[in-house]
Design brief:
The structure holds 2 protein chains of 2 kinds. By secondary structure, chain A is of the alpha/beta class. Chain A has 9 helices and 12 strands. In chain A, the strands form 3 sheets. A 5-stranded parallel beta sheet of chain A has the order 2-1-3-4-5, sandwiched between helices. In chain A, strands 7-9-10-12-11 form a 5-stranded mixed beta sheet, with helices on one face. In chain A, strands 6-8 form a two-stranded antiparallel sheet. Classes of the chains: A alpha/beta, B alpha/beta.
Chain lengths: 377, 130
């Protein structure tokens, strides 16, 4: 059998010259490349320099012992298959070697067949280990990239359609009949629903995959609420809904991510607007005790039947069935729940059909102690 | 009065066309390039008054490389440049902060852009031609 530079490289570390030569002959004949060292230090040096696939180490050597060599190499060079050669095969030393990272041990004296067999098995083990790690890394990368990929691939067509609608309106709106403009407006609304669905789905996936990290930042919920109110006020006005608020100017700080909380509160208000008839009322109040800040969002809307209340946070569950008037992304409240739970908060909901629904969202107050900082990463 | 020239660089043909329609409605002459290389070539031949460059073309960073190349040219030093992004602030790039020596970007626009906003921003740079 020929051996070239791609054949597996095997290092034999043994102070016994006859054994080194014997191993070399057998292994080279079997097509492997072989390096040999007469003592531990030299062996470690050769291993670091040439990164062999497999190393045989004699347990009993002067100066650096085989056990030390195994310890150093298993720590330094992962995936190198280490086999302990023992002159007096005791279970104790074998177990110790395995604990220190050896793959197996080979008691002296051994036959060429035994040597070839253990080399074959060891190299297979190495190959599987490398392959398993590669697959694991690939899978992790795929998972991580998937979200980024989807965010680009799903958004791109939506962005383009939205841009065409903008172009259509800019270029030709005045030439269209009211009926055509209505169709464009309806398209635009449905696209918006789809955009929201993609956004919510992405956020939920990010949280579920662990890609979303809670920033270790103190935030003031009153600024979060006022940003949400600012965003939703025009919609309320358009629908003739009164928006009453009572928010203390100073609220205890909580830990979290401002942007996702703004979107959460906006979502709750949007939800209330959707299910509240024209001329109705939405009340947003905020209070706190020693442990929690509570945001209460109450509407005078159509309400939710008691038996459906537990389902509203489920993805794509729609209380109103297929009624287009109440169409949304189907993921809005699922998203809200994920974000609130991510902030270690909770949501309480109560409702009466025909009278309205009330959500109470509670967030734990940030504890002002550096010793607890490790709690929230 | 001669129409002002705008160069659009984006690898999405539909986005190019939609944006072109809006800008033409605003009274500009619009040139389109579908990748960074074509964009830089077209920059040299067209010599536009403003360019809008997509940040995320085929490879992440291609937009920035176009930006660098344009800013490195003598006549590209002061031309208003807009960068386009479809990445939300929650995305993986929210930590991106241009280093101090980063070439000047006059405005970062997020896709999709409202027609009115786009024309307003362009007009602000090109002196109110609408």
């Amino acid at each position: 059998m020929t051996c070239d530079s791609t054949s597996p490289l095997i290092l034999v570390i043994d102070d016994e010259e006859a054994l080194r030569d014997g191993c070399r002959q057998v292994l080279e004949k079997a097509g492997y490349r072989v390096l040999a060292a007469a003592e531990g230090m030299e062996g470690v040096r050769l291993a670091r320099e040439h990164l062999p696939d497999m190393v045989f180490v004699d347990l009993k050597m002067p100066r650096m012992s085989g056990m030390e060599v195994i310890e150093v190499l298993s720590r330094d060079i992962p995936d190198m298959v280490l086999v302990m050669i023992t002159g007096f095969a005791t279970i104790v030393s074998a177990v110790e070697a395995l604990q220190k990272g050896a793959y197996d041990y080979l008691p002296k004296p051994f036959s060429p067949d035994q040597l070839r067999a253990i080399v074959k098995r060891g190299l297979e083990h190495r190959h599987l280990r490398i392959e398993a790690r590669r697959l694991k890394e690939e899978k992790e990368l795929l998972q991580k990239n998937f979200i980024t990929f989807v965010s680009h691939e799903m958004r791109s067509p939506l962005v383009v359609i939205r841009q065409y609608i903008e172009a259509l309106n800019a270029v030709a709106a005045e030439k269209f009949d009211q009926s055509v403009r209505d169709i464009i407006e309806r398209c635009s609304k449905r696209i918006q629903g789809l955009e929201e669905m993609v956004e919510h789905w992405l956020d939920i996936s990010k949280i579920e995959s662990g890609a979303f990290v809670l920033p270790n930042v103190s935030i003031d919920l009153s600024s979060v609420i006022s940003r949400s109110l600012e965003e939703m006020a025009p919609l309320c006005q358009k629908k003739g809904i009164r928006l009453e608020t009572d928010i203390p100017s100073a609220l205890p700080k909580i830990k979290g991510d401002t942007e996702s909380l703004v979107r959460t509160i906006t979502n709750f208000i949007g939800n209330a607007v959707k299910f509240t008839p024209e001329g109705g009322k939405i009340t947003l109040t905020c209070s706190h005790d020693d442990c929690y800040v509570r945001i209460r969002i109450a509407d005078s809307g159509i309400g939710i039947a008691a038996d459906k209340l537990s389902l509203i946070f489920e993805p794509f569950y729609r209380c109103a069935g297929k009624n287009e008037k109440y169409h949304g992304s189907g993921l809005g409240l699922t998203f809200c729940k994920k974000i609130v739970e991510f902030h270690k908060g909770s949501i309480d909901v109560s409702s009466k059909e025909g009278e309205g629904t009330t959500f109470v969202i509670a967030f734990p107050i940030e504890i002002n102690s550096s010793s607890l900082k490790t709690d929230l990463v | 009065m001669k129409k002002k020239k705008i160069l659009l660089i984006d690898d999405d043909q539909d986005f190019l066309l939609a944006t072109k329609l809006i800008l033409e409605k605003g009274g500009y002459e619009v040139f389109m390039a579908e990748n960074g290389k074509a964009g830089v070539e077209m920059w040299k031949s067209v010599n536009p008054d403003l360019a809008i460059i997509d940040m995320m073309m085929e490879t992440w960073g291609e937009g920035f490389s176009v930006l660098n190349k344009i800013r490195a040219m003598e006549k590209g030093k002061e031309t208003p440049l807009f960068m386009l992004s479809a990445v939300d602030l929650q995305g993986p790039y929210n930590s991106f902060e241009p280093p101090p020596d980063f070439p000047k970007v006059n405005r970062v626009l997020h896709k999709p852009i409202k027609a009115d906003d786009l024309l307003k921003y362009v007009a602000e740079e090109l002196g109110g031609q609408q």
